[in-house]
UniProtKB/TrEMBL annotation:
Protein name, per record: EAL domain-containing protein
UniProt domain EAL: residue ranges: 1-254
Location of the protein in the cell: Membrane
Superkingdom of origin: Bacteria
Length: 254
């Protein structure tokens, strides 16, 4: 109950902020996009990660207004990039299942993009595999609506849920992110290597891009590159960066 009050106050008093982690091409090192990650500057407690408060935000429904704040702030990052005159990279935002349950979600996001003059292709929404599986039919309709608006969709934490090939085949998503748990012991685990190979081959057959999460070592990066993963994200490239740092982050971009 106290946390709920504090979260309400956090929203009113602008205590939330976003950090941005680059997703890079494993073939040429260029920045493909940034993933926006929520942080809370809790007074007297320092900076909190979503692990500490997302569950309460979801239970209380506060994740809905917080979620719109996140999308708006991520669009602000895109606007800042547009002002630099350099190539603008898309921004990906994580969603909670409660946000998708709101019937007007797609319309509201569309209105927000229009108001902020951000092209829909520059926004990507990350939906976890387990969220998809909670209600496949609803997720399908929603994803189709969002796609029609030009917004990109990716499946997060892939490999931890239980989607079937036929379900994946029907989903109009752009990319799939292989969960960090498959990458962590990649160097020493032939089973994990085979899993990642199989997922990559399958996802490529569906015409989608594959992103590997949680890359921490060069060896992991080379293995993933050989396997044919398209993009990578992880501490090896960059930790989640503050807005100003993210604006300056170039990776191998010219
Ligand atoms: O950034 P960090 O590793 O602490 O994130 C922990 C988890 O919180 C991740 O699973 C991430 O997807 C989730 N998360 C980060 N930002 C947001 C957000 O804005 N909304 C939601 N719903 N989840 C987020
Ligand atoms: O569930 P999701 O994929 O949205 O989680 C993203 C989270 O993963 C972020 O909170 C981010 O801090 C964390 N993360 C990103 N790269 C790495 C990494 O290389 N290693 C570890 N351990 N965590 C990472
Ligand atoms: Mn994510
Ligand atoms: Na993930």
């Amino acid at each position: 109950v106290r946390l709920e009050k504090e979260l309400r106050l956090a929203l009113e008093q602008q205590q939330f902020f976003l950090v941005y982690q680059p997703v890079v091409s494993l073939t040429n090192g260029r920045v493909e996009k940034f993933e926006a990650l929520l942080r809370w500057h809790q007074p007297g407690q320092g900076v909190q990660s979503p692990g500490h408060f997302i569950a309460v935000a979801e239970l209380t429904g506060l994740i809905v207004p917080i979620g719109y704040w996140v999308i708006e702030a991520a669009c602000g990052f895109v606007q800042r990039q547009m002002q630099t005159g350099r190539t603008v990279k898309p921004v990906a935002v994580n969603l909670s299942v409660c946000q998708l349950r709101e019937a007007s979600f797609a319309e509201k996001v569309q209105a927000l993009l229009a108001r902020l003059k951000v092209p829909p292709e520059l926004l990507e929404l990350e939906i976890t595999e387990s969220m998809l599986m909670e209600n496949v039919d609803l997720a399908m309709v929603l994803i189709e609506n969002l796609k029609r608006l030009g917004i990109r969709i990716s499946i997060d934490d892939f490999g931890t849920g239980y989607s079937s090939l036929s379900q994946l085949r029907q989903l109009p998503v752009n990319a799939l992110k292989i969960d960090r748990s498959f990458i962590r012991e990649l160097e020493t685990s032939p089973v994990d290597q085979q899993m990642v190979e199989a997922i990559t081959a399958m996802v490529h057959k569906l015409g989608l891009r594959v992103v590997a999460e949680g890359i921490e070592t060069e060896q992991q990066m080379w293995l993933l590159r050989d396997i044919g993963c398209d993009h990578g994200q992880g501490f090896l490239f960059a930790r989640p960066l503050a807005l100003e740092q993210a604006l300056q982050y170039r990776g191998h971009d010219a």
